[in-house]
Amino acid sequence: MFRVKVLRRYDVSSRFKLITYLTSFIVGIAFFVLFEALLGTNPYEVVDRLFIRPLTSYDDFRVSIRYTVPIGIIASGLLLVYRAGIYSIGAEGQMAVGAVFAAWAAYTLSLGSPTSVLVALSIGMLGGIIWGLLPAILKALLNVNEVLTTLMMNFIAYSLVDYLIYGPWRSPKSYGFPLTEPIPTAFTIPTYEGIPVINFLVLLTVVLFTYVVARMSKLGFQIRAYGLNPSAAYASGMSFFKVVLLSFIISSALAGLAGALQLLSIHQRLGPKSWSVTEGLGYTAIVAAWISRLEPLAVVPASLLMGALVNGGLAIKAVLGQSEGVVNLMNGMILLSIVAAEFFINYRLVVRLR
Amino acid sequence: MRYQTVLAVVVVAIVAVAVGYFVGTASAPPPKTVTMTMTVTTPTTITTTVTQRVTTTVTIPVTVTKTPEKLKVAFIYVGPIGDYGWTHAHEVGRRYITNLFKDYIETTYVESVEEPKVYDVIKKLIGEGYKLIFTTSFGFMDGTLKAAQEFPNVIFFHCSGYKRWDNMGTYFADLYQLYYLNGLMAGALTKSGKVGYVAAHPIPEVIRHINAFALGVKEVNPNAKVYVRWIHAWYDPAKARSAAESLIAEGVDVLAFTEDSPTVIEVAQEYYKRGMPVYAFAHYSPMLKFGPDVVVSGQLVHWEVIYADIVAKVLTGVYNTTNLRNVDYWWLLSEGAVELGADYGVPINPKFIPMLKEVKVKEKITGVEMNVYDLVMLRLKQMSEPRPTFDPFCAVKEPILTQDGKVLVRPGECLSHDDLWNMMVFVDNVVGSIPVS
User: Fold this and answer.
1) End-to-end alpha-carbon separation of chain B, Å?
2) Domains and CATH numbers, chain B
């Protein structure tokens, strides 16, 4: 009979990691394409619509990029907390609150462009921080499980948006539908032929910033130390409180920034659903962060890929006429193949004939 | 190393497929078989009558030579086609016109489109050559308008919104007359004088329906009250159940609702089985089978009537990319866009007809005494006429009052289309509040 042993790998080369990742990703896609072939869809067309066109055709790329930017900005922040071994899933809520704060700034302050935009973005970041601070403090002081608290905060954020769009912010001109007024033009961020160029430049700046923080700063080192071995990090005198708080603040500020950017450039109003301004991208960004293997520079290709897949998912439904279930299946397959790759990077299976 | 890599790939693949399969099957909507029959009063020949409500009727005879290329028509839905309400009803309409105009059009649909993504989906459809696009959710309004302005050669129709463009019209089939008729029956059937309403979201459409229902109740039973519970969801069976149960606990014995599942009816049926009769009115879909002992009547919609009219007019050139700015369908009973009942062709569950015939009321316009069954049939007939001779939101001899005693409609006057669209107050026999600032 067979005997299977799971052995830990040590000293894994980055080349091996890269190869394993790419292969598992391709295998995930390959199985999805196979599944589509069984459904009777032309496999070439599936691959083409799913990510060749979203990345190469100018018309499609314009759509992909509007999903890429928020995913990338949020993933950049998330990788810092993930590096510290903190599993925050609260970016969605922080993004929503960031949008709410930016909207508040746009409705109440009268400023000229471009000060207006900078102020609204800063206030949006502040909103994100406020939303991230509660789970951060609970984690830092009482070691409360951050997965639960951040998830709950997301639902509270949705309820906050619902309260505003059904209540005090509901536009008097919307026939009672849950929409806010469009934000004043001084606060809008222009796009070029539908491409949020400014947002993309913000993404690149954020990526450089997180690269510096994660790779070159003392904080980045402490974050990594806590992620690898909390006891050793604590014993060597690093402040757990400081690491948790700072990494949380940066990540939630970036999520708030993403929400504010989406509001000012793409949506320009809140409603009609609580998640209309976030579109669930705060969750998609978690996947992007893990695809990047928590490497700041790798966030750019990872978020391009995820943005393309969101866009490609729409094409699968709209052009190939397939159901929502098929798109979910594709996302599940790709995500799982990447999770499985993580296993094969850290462990190997030894099969022996007895 | 190479051997291990290969092995790794194989195992990853197996895990990915196995788990992917389960994720896929778990997330795919459960298949539903829905059988239905219907009658539609739209001409199958493409000679069309342009009927504009309230204004004039123009008949334009058009002969159509079969176009060499079929018109490509797309529908964008907010939910899955297997839901038990909104999206399914539109899908029924799409299938109907696909068959009706099969020599002239081909259709497709995109389901479960999140509101902010509608513009991106429209662009993809236009890239595939679709020339007539229906977007069927209020939240699609801004995205549809943006696309209409960007693609002047494509015709758009948006359901339930209020923004139009040269190439973008709007349409809606409203149920308020049916809720009023349901209210008449509810008023006759309640013994406790308490009628319940499980309500989705506090928007004018739902408020209008609650008010129409309450006006019906009041006409038959001036002392009865309508108790409202908000669930803040279009589809949430769990919340609908707890709202219905808490209303029953308050003494309510008749229920109406706005929610896309038959949950409220199932609750009523359970109470009935336990010997506690609670009656209910179906919403949007034929739900009689979920509560044959308790469902009195309900509201049904026929989107296919509107779709057939629009497609016929687009095919014949009555509608083009420049003249839709004032095209707003607001279709009701008289156009055949909605139907009274909990199943097609069954306006009132036969079980309840004798009970309704026992209750006598004075008809408020003529003062003639009649039973509630006859009253319902009279009102149904009056509202189904080409020019309706009755409307629940017209005050006859007494004014219609709001909850705080203000006059909403003076005697002899009616609410306009805009008043109905902006309605944000309850009439005086409703108990409950509208959650707004």
Assistant:
1) 67
2) 48-173+303-335 (3.40.50.2300), 176-300+339-394+419-424 (3.40.50.2300)
